[in-house]
Amino acid sequence: MTEEIADSAEFEEPPRTKQRVGAFQIYTGEGKGKSTASLGLMLRALGAGLKVYYLRMLKPRWKTGELKLCPDLHPNLTFRNVPHYWALCVSRKVPQDVERMKAELIPEVAALKDIVCSGKYDLVIVDEINYCLHRELISLEQVLDLVDSRPPEVELVFTGRHAPVELIERADVVTEMRKIKHHFDQGVRARLGIEF
């Protein structure tokens, strides 16, 4: 191959383009890759000059690769992690943790509607919102109101297992990640940089 790939420094950041038509997308299912897909979409949108709001609802505050990188990644990205203590696979069985998480999420969902409707962001991604609904940590009625209030040019993405049928019916795009095989079943633990 005789052509050389141009140095990335030669490319200028594209101007922010307004979405003509946004969609409501859901990434759900038991398989791996829901949050990973949303992070990939986030990078694609930033590269195209779009403004992105990314909210992580139930992921730990520590250890995850994206939490170390994303808060300062790009001027067009607002990356927020709900400040909480929620131990995956444990807290759902601890009544105090459930009540504390419900209290933490009430203002987050209220603020999220304002963010979606503000016109400030082209893409809004809400990671693990489906699982929050499944665990009844947030109100389905409040989330449906948020979805129904979405301006048509805003791309809205929800991730997490157990997406409720009421959301699936409203969505323009639904992707189900289906597990065919996973090394977790052979006792391999989650790996830093790959699973979190």
Describe the structure.
With 196 residues, the protein is an alpha/beta fold. It has a single domain, classed as P-loop containing nucleotide triphosphate hydrolases (Rossmann fold, 3-Layer(aba) Sandwich). The protein is 32% helix and 15% strand. It contains six helices and six strands, in the order βαβαβαβααβαβ. The protein has a six-stranded parallel sheet with strand order 3-2-4-5-1-6. Helix 3 runs parallel beside helix 5. The longest helix is centred in the middle third of the chain and has 23 residues. It is globular and about 45 Å long.
User: How would you state the average pLDDT, rounded?
Assistant: 87
Binned, the helix content reads: 25-40%
* SSE run: EHEHEHEHHEHE
Which sequence of strands runs across the widest sheet? 3-2-4-5-1-6
Q: Sheet with the most strands? A: 6 strands, parallel
**Top-tier CATH class:** Alpha Beta
Number of strands: 6
Radius of gyration: 18 Å
Number of H/I helices: 6
Separation of termini? 37 Å
Enter the CATH topology name.
Rossmann fold
Strand fraction equals: 5-15%
Q: Considering the protein shown, what is the CATH homologous superfamily?
A: P-loop containing nucleotide triphosphate hydrolases
List its traits.
globular; Rossmann fold; 6 helices; 196 residues; alpha/beta; six-stranded parallel β-sheet
Short description:
By secondary structure, the chain is of the alpha/beta class. It is built from 6 helices and 6 strands. Helices cover 32% and strands 15% of the residues.
Write the layout of secondary structure elements.
Layout lengths: L23 E5 L5 H14 L4 E5 L8 H5 L7 E5 L13 H23 L5 E5 L1 H6 L5 H9 L6 E5 L5 H6 L2 E4 L20
Parallel strand pairs: 1-5, 1-6, 2-3, 2-4, 4-5
